[in-house]
Write a structure and sequence with these properties.
Number of helices: 18
Strand content: 5-15%
Mean pLDDT: 86
Oligomer: single chain
Helix content: 40-55%
Shape: globular
Length: 466
């Protein structure tokens, strides 16, 4: 017996027909938003948005940076649990009660972590209560699929300038209320925001920061948060690359290009990457994909910039001498485990197993490389701070300390919970039970971290010293 098609099936059939009709009737010429050049006055002066507005003579004694890794909604939920724990970590400073989250001056995100990072930069503490119902507990992924099948969207998708990532950007724009980087900068108390994607041509990280956009002479301030997050989340093949226009040549070269050749490898690579964007005639467009392809932690480019300055003190040259007492970096790693270990069998791995191993296995190795670089950098920075703190002209107070806290989903204390959560898929929508468990796990992993407990003891000492 033949049953009539369901409404859903009939709708899909109609949409397929519309797709074919659109293809036969010609391609759409629709063009989505693309970044613009810096305004003439800013371009001619060689200045755009201040590179580090949070670091000024009025910088507070405690400066915190948080980086949120990729991993879809899994990473966003785990990261939200960490942010809530930072808010629950109270201490006394200058006779007043405050929290660690209140002192976050930079928040960085990659892919799924960028969704949360941009939301916190836009809304501050409201994120702690709004992000779960507004993103984590809504069928975000199924809505994307439905919207992609709308007739208007199907027709736009025939445009060579419009891809699946533009549909994602439009949904994200609703989440962020249409906010731009300028809107974040104008919000009182907002941290600097760094969103990392990958340059498809060079394989190098590309970050949505003032430094990067000055190189391409573009207006970061007018860039929608949704555009940057969609670029950072554009998983190759599943989503389309996001295109940025290179306006280099309309502005004087950034100051870093006038520096003598860097001596260490990382600084040379950073300089080479920067110089690669200066010829806009050769590279008028930059196509971006998921930031996790090059750095799933979202911290490598930040570290390279810190290293290229030559010293930790040079990175805080604008800070009033003797100001900084605690520098804190919190890295949140939400990468998942491999669903299958291909080295458990002598059979030839399937295509799916190969792709998963390349994406998650190789990505895990790169994460470990980044963490090892961070540990090496930390040792040098601590030596420098101990030598220079309290000295005339030094930005570091006599009791200055540097703390790095690495929080990983692999460090969740409970074995059963850890094994279960490490297998939550990388997707825009996950089970509601997993959303709740991941947030709890983020808070528990933070509290269980020995480095975090040392930081808490260090913060208590602030209240006992002037």
């Amino acid at each position: 017996m033949t049953h009539p098609p369901t409404l859903r099936g009939a709708t899909r059939a109609a949409l397929v027909a519309l797709t074919l009709a659109s293809a036969l009737s010609g391609c759409s010429s629709y063009r989505p938003w693309i970044n613009q050049a810096l305004p003439a006055d800013a371009a001619n002066s060689g200045q755009g948005q201040a590179a580090h507005p949070a670091l000024s003579p009025d910088t507070p004694p405690v400066v915190v940076a948080v980086t949120l890794s990729g991993g879809g909604a899994r990473a966003a939920a785990f990261g939200l649990g960490v942010l809530r724990e930072l808010k629950a970590t109270t201490f006394e400073l200058n006779g007043r009660a405050t929290t660690l989250l209140d002192h976050v001056s930079l928040i960085s995100g990659v892919s799924g972590g960028s969704i949360l990072a941009a939301h916190y930069a836009a809304f501050g503490d409201e994120t702690l209560t709004r992000f779960e119902p507004d993103f984590l507990l809504v069928p975000f992924e199924s809505r994307l699929i439905r919207e992609a099948l709308w007739p208007a969207r199907l027709y736009r998708l025939t445009s060579p300038w419009y891809g699946r990532s533009q549909i994602l950007a439009q949904r994200l724009d609703e989440l962020y209320g249409g906010r731009t980087f300028d809107d974040v900068r104008r919000r009182p108390g907002a941290p600097d925001l760094m969103i990392t994607a990958t340059d498809l041509t060079t394989g190098a990280p590309f970050d949505f920061t003032a430094e990067q956009f000055q190189v391409i002479c573009s207006d970061l301030g007018a860039t929608p948060l949704s555009f940057a997050v969609a670029a950072s989340s554009a998983v190759p093949l599943l989503l389309s690359p996001v295109t940025v226009r290179n306006h280099a040549g309309r502005c004087p070269p950034p100051a870093e290009l006038a520096l003598p050749s860097a001596q260490d490898y990382r600084s040379r690579m950073l300089q080479r990457s920067t110089e690669g964007y200066r010829n806009a005639k050769e590279r008028p467009y930059i196509h971006l994909v998921d930031g996790g392809v090059t750095d799933n932690l979202g911290v490598r480019l930040m570290l390279d910039r810190l290293v290229s300055a030559g010293s930790m003190s040079a990175n805080f040259a604008d800070v009033k001498p003797g100001t900084l007492r605690r520098l804190v970096l919190v890295t949140v790693n939400s990468e998942r485990a491999l669903a299958e270990r291909v080295d458990k069998s002598d059979r030839i791995p399937t295509t799916g197993q190969v792709l998963e191993s390349l994406i998650f296995g190789a990505g895990s190795r790169e994460t470990q490389v980044t963490l090892d670089l961070l540990n090496d950098d930390l040792r040098r920075w601590r030596d420098e701070v101990e030598r220079t703190r309290g000295q005339p002209g030094s930005p570091f107070a006599p009791d200055a300390e540097i703390h790095v806290v690495s929080i990983s989903l692999h460090d969740v204390p409970d074995d059963d919970s850890r094994h279960s959560l490490l297998r939550v898929p990388t997707a825009f929508t996950i089970e509601a039970r997993d959303v709740i468990d991941l947030q709890r796990a983020g808070a528990e992993a933070t509290r269980a971290s020995p480095a975090y407990r040392r930081l808490q003891e260090s913060l208590k000492r602030l209240a006992r010293s002037p």
